[in-house]
Amino acid sequence: MAESLNGTTLYAARFTKAQAASVKAFNDSLPFDRRMVEEDIVGSIAHARMLGRQGIIPEEDARAIVGGLARLYAETAEQGGVSSDADDEDIHSYVERRLGQMVGQAAGRLHTARSRNDQVANDLRMWSRGAVCDGIGAALALQSALLDRAERDKGLILPGYTHLQRGQPVLLSHHWLAYVEMLGRDVGRLEDLFERMDVMALGAGALAGSPYPLDREYAATLLGFSRVSTNSMDAVADRDFVVEHLAALALLAVHLSRLAEELILWSSAEFGFVEMDDAYATGSSIMPQKKNSDVAELVRGKAGTAIGTLVQMLVTLKGLPLTYNKDMQEDKVGYFRAVDESQACLQLSGEMIATLRVRREGLRAAVSDSLLLATDLADHLTRSGLPFREAHGVVAAIVRDHGPGFTRLPASELGRYHALLADGMPSLTPRSSVQARDIVGGTAPRQVAAALRRSRRDHAQAVARLEKRQAGLPSVEALTALPW
Length: 484
Prior knowledge:
Helices cover about 60% and strands about 5% of the residues. The protein has 19 helices and six strands. A two-stranded antiparallel ribbon has the order 1-2. It has a two-stranded parallel sheet with strand order 3-4.
């Protein structure tokens, strides 16, 4: 049985029988919520300091509790975390039990004016704030790799695709910057989420608030929260921030999956645009020639897990009456996994992009397809006065009859399709095609260079915002060192 200060579960005095072993195994959450040990200790230090400051518990007991929690944190760090074999119901029980062993009876005062309901809600909010910051940092690192790639690959042209069919020439840098844009939106969603989750739940109690004269604003300041919850029932029942985080991670995973899919396609013999670095590829157990893009394939595959976890969380919450229900314990296993996998996918995507070898000969062969210039011929006719829809029909007929050889047709043949072509084919090249699209957002070299500068500026600003958020997060060392 999990033990508290008196050698029983925290609620055992209510019952006449010990908890069944099968129930304990089914009910206990320590195997997964133990990773919130730092958040539980930090929150408990702030709570103890507030209780002592308000005279709710004796100051000497508050000092003893804070000192014991600091020693427990050091012990946990030295051991590399909390063992999943510990015989406690959850991380909160573990911290309270070990604190009692360290400081004795004073530890029993820590839970004054606090319920496990507001405690777990607050711990999870603090953990989520850190996870969101980590996610922003990893997304910015991938953005940086893509920006470096766009700089390195300036001037290279490849076919742009719609329906996975060759469409028009684009700069490879323009293509990389498309993913920079996606990641910028991902970072923005995580930043928005941080503001909404930055609410302290401590003081909500089990569901109705507290009869003690708490200074919630003081505790929130210690914990780096920008504000306190304003409804005790919502505070303990709310997991919107988990859902929002999972939604942001699911969409991020979709973006990473799209990037991975292109790397997989481009590294195939059929495309031949890139080659994966050996460190990020695998081979075949039977076919010795194979070099497989397994890392990218796993990134693509894990998008399904991220999406599924979001759906699982929504289904878990949809039928719950206010306030706390044990179903909400299921908010962590999938959530923690989704966070971990998104971090790994971001890191590996950045490493793959940074080490990728672009096969210039493959790009040159692909953009030599003159069909990529069909739209440019229609634009030439339109600039010469023909309505675009009519110009489109003229070029479609030429391509229908002559295929990719249409750019080599003599003037006499072209004149049969329209008098505006009687003087022959205008000069059309992949380079002239990209240069022609010289508008904001276009693939022209001048516009891509401007977009690269703008993206680097936005990236630097996002890094600065992240550093500011991280500086505001609490630590055991900082809270312990505060004067009394």
